[in-house]
């Protein structure tokens, strides 16, 4: 059994999609981010960055020994699960294919993901009078990354040719283009790629996981200091009665 620490966000969907696609048994543990579950000492032991998703594999392969394996950061989680199952990634011995996979995973975590996350912040959660510059700045970066993906998909249906964890990483932030104030009209290959992935039953199950708990603007900078404006002090242990 694998514990999945999860909230219904694009980053949370990445790990949930992979678990659904592989068919591994898992238990979703809802993280109430607006209430600060991510800062509980027990969770910081699993994810020192105080971010979800994170997993605990209670029955790893024998090579890992007897102790449970904890993994934080979505890219690391998907790589771990791909290696564990032999699914949705080139085999470690296929060096050229593995190199391409790493390039696109690092592109997602270093470019598409952060730019889309900042766009989401300024579109949906920042104070009204401070949104314009940030929104324009990150919308431009978001569109630039859509262009990178559009070019990559010119001669292939998926990022590596076959459906892989590279697609699972990049899909969620393209899936929510409209709520981000962006459009896919100028990126027809991305739109087709998005539709192919969205139609997969495993992807639909992952997106529906705890769907009612999505933050659709109800928790914003001006009304939730737990979720926004975090600092190093956020990582300090909270009093015992606040971590339950």
Automatic annotation (TrEMBL):
Domain GST C-terminal, by residue range, is: 94-218
PANTHER family, alphabetically?
DISULFIDE-BOND OXIDOREDUCTASE YFCG, GLUTATHIONE S-TRANSFERASE-RELATED
Pinpoint the GST N-terminal domain residues: 1-89
The record's annotation in Pfam families points to: GST_C_2, GST_N
Which InterPro entries has this protein been placed in?
Glutathione-S-Trfase_C-like, Glutathione-S-Trfase_C_sf, Glutathione_S-Trfase, Glutathione_S-Trfase_N, Thioredoxin-like_sf
Keyword annotations of the record: Transferase
* Compositional bias segments (type: Basic and acidic residues): 211-222
Specify whether Transferase is a keyword of the entry: yes
Instruction: State the name under which the record lists this protein.
Output: Glutathione S-transferase N-terminal domain-containing protein
For this protein, the record's PROSITE patterns field holds: GST_CTER (PS50405), GST_NTER (PS50404)
CDD domains (alphabetical) = GST_N_Ure2p_like
Q: Which GO terms describe its molecular function?
A: transferase activity
Q: Give the span(s) annotated as Disordered.
A: 211-244
Composition-biased stretches (Polar residues): 223-234
């Amino acid at each position: 059994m694998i514990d999945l620490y999860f909230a219904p966000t694009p980053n949370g969907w990445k790990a949930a999609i992979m678990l659904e696609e592989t068919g591994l048994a898992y238990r979703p543990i809802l993280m109430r981010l607006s209430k600060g579950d991510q800062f509980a000492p027990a969770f910081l032991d699993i994810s020192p960055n105080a971010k979800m998703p994170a997993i605990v594999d209670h029955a790893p392969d024998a090579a890992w020994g007897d102790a449970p394996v904890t993994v934080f950061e979505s890219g690391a989680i998907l790589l771990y699960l791909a290696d564990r199952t032999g699914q949705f990634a080139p085999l470690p011995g296929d060096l050229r294919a593995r190199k391409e996979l790493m390039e696109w995973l690092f592109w997602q975590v270093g470019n598409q993901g952060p730019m889309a996350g900042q766009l989401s912040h300024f579109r949906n959660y920042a104070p009204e009078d401070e949104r314009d510059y940030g929104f324009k700045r990150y919308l431009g970066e978001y569109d630039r990354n859509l262009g990178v993906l559009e070019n990559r998909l010119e001669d292939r249906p998926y990022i590596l040719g076959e459906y892989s964890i590279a697609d699972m990483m990049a899909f969620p932030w393209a899936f929510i283009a409209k709520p981000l104030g962006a459009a896919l009209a100028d990126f027809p290959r991305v739109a087709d790629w998005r539709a192919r992935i969205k139609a997969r039953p495993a992807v639909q199950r992952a997106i529906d996981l705890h769907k009612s708990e999505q933050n659709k603007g109800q928790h914003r900078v001006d009304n939730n200091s737990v979720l926004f404006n975090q600092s190093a002090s956020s990582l300090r242990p909270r009093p015992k009665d606040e971590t339950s």
